[in-house]
Design goal:
Layout: E1 2-7, H1 13-22, H2 24-28, E2 32-35, H3 46-56, E3 59-64, H4 66-70, H5 72-87, E4 92-97, H6 127-145, H7 164-167, H8 183-211, E5 215-223, E6 226-233, E7 236-246, E8 255-259, E9 271-277, E10 282-286, H9 304-316
Helix pairs in contact: 8-9
Length: 320
Amino acid sequence: MAIVFFCYSHRDETLRDELEVHLSMLKRQGFIEMWHDRRITAGEELDKAISKNLEEADIILLLVSSDFLASNYCYDIEMQRAMQKHEQRESHIIPVILRSCDWRSAPFSKLLVTPTDGKPIKKFPDQDDAFLEVVNAVKATITRLQPPQDITPPSKSYGSAVKPQILDILRSSNLRIRKTFSDRDRDQFVEESFEYISNFFENSLVELSNRNPEVDTHFKRIDANHFSALVYNAGKKATECQIWIRGSSHLFTNGIAYSSNASGSDNSFNESMSIVDDEHALFLQPLGMAFFASQQNVNKSLSQQRAAEYFWKILLRPLQ
């Protein structure tokens, strides 16, 4: 069993908790045991407990953010000792980029970071995708740490039970069962979908501007339930929109609305999506107003990604 040590700033405790949840299957299967300073019990000496567990760690996760880099304890003590252990092949470091920061100037920048290309977890439209990349990096590290079969494992083993073929378990993919979704489930799905679409638009606007020098873009998070997006071509406003969480009324249930007016009111929209299910999962269903002349192009059960692409297509239509 490999010991996984979390080196992090307490300001990132929420993200650490999320990562710990995503690693829970490896813990259930007996491949890892996780430790961080919140495991210290009353009466223990803080510095001694941290030092002891850091020394015993097989895998050290550096949870990198501006607060991590600014922390004297994280950077000058824990990270420096972790780098020494890594260079001496006593432990293996995995830098995990949580939030945007100047991590490329740090000593661990020479190591392969995760998520891919150092994209911060907070920048992912769906953070579960980012955490899954971290889980896969831990899996790959466990596999590399497995002692060769023809060599007697050292007394401090990285887990002789860990075998690559176990980490990729053969099983059926037909595991879905019929579900009943509550109002709370639907409301939460609306909020999660809105956050996904918001992050999708913010990142897409940046990339649109990067790839097209004549284009400028502006993303504005108006409040928790609204955001706007504007695209300028050669300095002239070319297209705009506002997207928001639509409350229930006598005509519509909760959903997500789109207006081609970035400063319009909630009473007027050009497209809207409601929440539907197929007895297995929740989806977004567009009314089809934006593409009324080509209804065959409207998929009535959209994932969050396809819903974001659908709205994005409406925004870019004047430019394409």
